[in-house]
Every structure is written in C-alpha cells, then in structure tokens.
Amino acid sequence: MRSFSNLWFWIALAVFWSSASHWVLGVPWDMVLRAKRVGAQAEIDLQDMVRINTNRILYIARVSGLWLLALACFVLTGLAVLGWFYAVEFAQAVFLLMFPMSFVGAMSISTANRIQVEEATGELLRKRLGRHRFWVQFVGMISIFVTSLWGMYQNFQISPLG
Q1: What is the pTM of this model?
Q2: Residues 77-89: pLDDT tens digits?
Q3: Of 146, 54, 45, 24, residue with least CA distance to 92
Q4: Which residue from 83, 94, 101 is spatially nearest to 20, judged by alpha carbons?
Q5: Cβ proximity of 25 and 132 under 8 Å
Q6: What are phi and psi of 159, to 5 degrees?
Q7: What's the alpha-carbon Rg for the chain, to the nearest Å?
Q8: For 112, what's the count of Cα atoms within 13 Å in the CB-facing half-sphere?
Q9: Beta 27-28 vs 23-24: how paired, if at all?
Q10: Is 28 in a helix, a strand, or coil?
Q11: 51: closest CA among 88, 13, 25, 28?
Q12: 134-143 tens-digit pLDDT
C-alpha cells in the first residue's frame, strides 16, 4: 500500500492526465485538429460529437448533478480524512488523483454550457475546446507537481536515511 514509491502509481498518474488532456469533453483532440485541417465532413463530425457530448454532460448535471456533487464531496472528504488524519498513504494518493479531477469536471460542465448557449460551431467551437484543453493541462501540470512534491516528501519521511 506504499503508493508514492510504487512505479505503477506514477504510470497511472501520467496516463490519467494524458487521457484527460486528450479527451476534451469526450471528443478526441485529434478529431478537433482534423476538423481544423480538413474541414468539410470532419467539421460536421466534430460538431455532431460535441453536440452529443455536451447534451449528455448537461443532462447528467441537470438531472443528478446535486447528488453527484454530494457523493463527490463525501468521497473526497473521506479520502482526505483517511489520508491526512489517519495517515493512510493510499488514501492520500487517490485524493491527489481525484481532487484535481473534480475541477476538471466542473470546467467541463461550464464549457459544455457555454458551447450550448453560444451555439458554437466552426472556429468558435474549436477555440472553446482548445481553451478547455489548455486549462485541463494547466490543472494537470499543477496536480502532477503537487503530487510529486508530496510523494517525494513521503518517501523521504519513510526512508531508512530519515
């Protein structure tokens, strides 16, 4: 259960944030680039995928958003208490994965709402998706930095060299 000294945790962290950065509102980033480069049918496909995913995200947020928020707060609080009050390293590791992802979820709902309200298409749609991807990458970069600092601190505390 030593998460921060386990190579698999760091691989999972990298895959986690790489996937979050690649899938922008459930749309693969290469699809956005192809729509920009090729246009025509690729642009229509992108708009359809974004419309489907924004409708899905906003429907879930409207129907069960309050329950999901309550559940997320409960789980994150439980992980934080287990991790830092009871010193369970596994809970710390999971918290450091999930807490920043809650910000990404909130940003996804906000971006989906903005795209739907503006009825964004074409260049504006690609701009919104690009801006959302930038902020997801920014949150990921800060998250990886904080997680690595905390992980190094934990490893130094437990090491035999003390």
Answers
A1: 0.89
A2: 999 999 999 999 9
A3: 146
A4: 101
A5: yes
A6: -65, 155
A7: 19
A8: 24
A9: antiparallel
A10: strand
A11: 25
A12: 999 999 999 9
